[in-house]
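Appendix B: complex inputs.
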Amino acid sequence: MTCELTLRDVRSVARIVNLAHRFNCRCTHVTANADATVTARFAFDGAAVALVRLRAQIDRIVAYEAPQ
Amino acid sequence: MNGAQAVLAALEREGVDTVFGYPGGAIMPLYDALFGHPVRHVLVRHEAAAAFAASGYARTSGRVGVCCATSGPGATNLVTGLLDAMMDSVPVVAITGQVRRELMGTDGFQEADVCAITQAVTKRNMLVSDVDSIAETLAEAFALARRGRPGPVLVDIPNDVLKAQTDVTAVPEKPPGRIGDGPRVSDAAVRDAVARIRSARRPVAIVGGGVRAGAVDLYRMFVAMLGLPHAATINALGAAASGDAAYLGMLGMHGLKAANKAVQRADVILALGMRFDDRVTGKPDRFAREATVIHADIDATEFNKIITANVALHGDLGETLRALVNELARGHVPRFDDWAAEARLLGGPLPSDRVADDVLSATDVLDRVFAALPGDAIVTTDVGQHQMWAAQRARPAHPRKYATSAGLGAMGFGFPAAVGAAYANPTVPVFAIVGDGGFQMCLPELATLRRYKIPVKIVLIDNQNLGMVRQWQELFFSERYSATNLADNPDFVAIARAYGIEAFAIDAPAGADDVIARFVAARGPALLHCACHPTENVWPMIPAGMTVDDLMEARA
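Resulting structure:
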């Protein structure tokens, strides 16, 4: 699974990598450019059910970061 | 003004009237600003209680609960309460002091990286490193706590930032966040859902904690319009209208048989603001196997997380229900009264585990207590057997009349949550139902009751055991009772009286009603100690990972 995200908070990159570990997925690629916003690219390997769960948690992080 | 005064100005702007907290070094400037300030501070006796009290305040009012603590241990003691709020979608803002910026990263005294620690237990956290950004940061924290699916937000402020001077107290004009803001449910999905409802033969609605976000009246209208049999998760107790004969009760592991059986036989499940917790579904691949699932939620990540949704209604639950009602009203409105009557017959009276008529049982006590409660009472519970017995019996008038740590199951929640509920609802009687295990996790809060004369009534179900764990040891661990016996409990009546709290006691059914009546009528804070039989179990029970087909109603 790959995803490209625009984040407000660069700490979320670490949070997402931690979540992948928690769900027994492997983060095979991560790059991030931090400016006013953060552009981050991830690639993950893992069981299909774990990747679905990870994607849902990533979506939640992005939603909570969205500007008010 | 300084940063601490800017914090209080921000709290006033958000309409905050009460903060639950505990002082310490790094947050002293905030406490200095609180001295004589109109925002009321309630001194709890452990920071964990501050977070639970803020949660109780929020759960029973719909307003944001606020707690504060100092750096390091003060902040880490909030963590359980924040996770509890996260799991049950409760809007809470926590403000923590932090060591001075020059000390951060030096392992300074009472330094903790609280933003790292709380990343997983909050919607977001913010470290304020510029005093001029306090006002905007707190405005964003409150908006985020309320917005969409509510939850906790933590704001960490270094000591020197609290002391620094600022003239920035205004925040840019933005529409205020509120519970219910968020995506609009799609018309096509609503039409699809209504078509499935119209063709259903055995539909069942399951309502969850999402109903607390202003959707109770619409929910009642929706189920009444259809004569729809419906069940509630523990976070939605009180959603059903009083006397609604189609209401089947709580479902799940210790839910009522009719609710669980009806869900299992349903051909359409309407899952409304609920998240298919494992305590509800048991074994997901055997849960409601014949049913089409219509799932409504404000949080899109809940769709297909546990149970596949055939129709996903993404949006505010109140708006979704309004759209469903309007769409139904445009055409044929089916009635499910016959199925509702049939569903009710799937159950029966709650199975009893009482030992003898002259032995005090917890369920007997709770039956008597619920019968004696004023109709407008708020009830909080702790976690364990008493929580389930209470949930099976409670018929609160509204979900905001009932607060329990559902998703996290945090012992020690019930009593401080009642303190928070009492501040949010000063004219309403508040009762905390607790067990002897959880009560001992927050005993010092008796001092909080005493200091502020908070008229919370505590019903202590004392079975001298960590009863739920004991029950599992009996049923699933070959009766090896490891670390669950509390036969050496202290004299709780003496403890209450030592704190200056009026105490009552019952240890037998004879005369119990009279004592309960006097306890309920007591003017100030009071404790009712109930010495109950130690081995009463919670029935019915669906063992973890099983289904209603495996439901147990008594010991094998």
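Chain B has a mean pLDDT of 96.
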